[in-house]
Amino acid sequence: MYALGIETSCDETAAAVLTDGFEVLSNVILSQDEVHAPYGGVVPELASRQHIKTIDAVVGEALARAGVELKAIDLFAVTQGPGLIGSLLVGLSFAKGLAYFFKKPLVGIDHLEGHVEAAFLENRDIGFPALALLVSGGHTSLYLLEKKLSYRLLGRTRDDAAGEALDKIAKFLGLGYPGGPLIEKLAAGGDRTAFAFSRPRIKDAPLDFSFSGLKTAALKHIRESGITKEHPRLADFLASFEEAVARPLVDNLARAVDEFGPKSLILCGGVARNTRLRARFRQFADRQKLPAFIPSPKMCTDNAAMVAALALEKRAAGIPMSVDLDLDAYPR
Ligand code: KG4
Ligand code: ZN
């Protein structure tokens, strides 16, 4: 039995083929970074146009690499939201067409639940309850999973997502897009204690996040110390900022561990590719003597293997499935 996943929620066009044994036969990701780089961020209109241009080829490539014919697919899975509405509609319409033509079930997948699923796809033995920290360009959220397919939102960002804060500071300094990986590269060897950042606190919701204050503090440091792309202390500044972004993530996780006593910890989403954040997360888990599950870098980025995997989980759980042509995209 084969599932085809499709993901077009933001600026990656992705398709993947999985077996019902959760074997990833192909996982194709076409990034639009080059299209958006000149603007320093994703331009929604360009993103949807680009998805339209490439989705057919990306799905074809995923099938070819898997060695599976379209007519052999038993289940279609597609990201329904949250994301850019125009981008989502491209994947959703494409998947609806396939499901309708081949008369096979179509499953709508939540992008954030998909990111969490990436951890389960690579580790089939994660113990419950689990705490999952999702850190991406559009979202920063903390979930409690009492069991498979149950996601209780404990906290989320009140303003910017962690990745967004990294991207915006990179854009301000003219480093390029996407900012996260560029900051990581340029921060290498820098002194993470060189620039001070105070910890953001949200009084009434201690598990919520806020990154706009850090961004403002970063801009103040940039102005006061005259930080530029060529500045000799650029690495120190970026290492300090990266550390300041990682700190509240682990702080809130620590609070949630005290409150909920989980058996395992999950880190996922695009920013989970970050070496410093991965290290801080693992150090914390080790201190707590809890197993840490972090997907491989390719599975942290937006991809369609996580989308197909979650649809297969739902199928295995006995959730009814149909050729649902009424599925609607949701932006948030
Ligand atoms: O999950 P994702 O691929 O797309 C969204 O759903 O948002 O995450 C993209 C975000 C961007 O903000 C990007 O700068 C960040 O992940 N990112 C990183 C790294 N690689 C990607 N941030 C820090 N370090 C990295 N190595
Ligand atoms: Zn994502």
Task: Tell me what the structure shows.
The protein is α/β, with parallel strands linked by helices. It has helices at 33-36, 44-66, 85-102, 111-122, 162-172, 179-187, 212-225, 234-260, 275-288, 297-300, 305-316; strands at residues 2-7, 12-19, 24-31, 73-81, 106-110, 130-135, 140-145, 152-156, 264-268, 292-293. The protein has a five-stranded mixed sheet with strand order 3-2-1-4-5, with helices on both faces. A five-stranded mixed sheet has the order 8-7-6-9-10, sandwiched between helices. β7 (140-145) and β8 form a beta hairpin. Bound molecules: 5'-O-[(R)-(carboxyoxy)(hydroxy)phosphoryl]adenosine and zinc ion. Zinc ion binds at residues 111, 115, 136, 269-270, 302. Residues 10, 136-138, 163, 166-167, 178-181, 184, 269-271, 273-274, 301-302 line the site of 5'-O-[(R)-(carboxyoxy)(hydroxy)phosphoryl]adenosine (KG4).
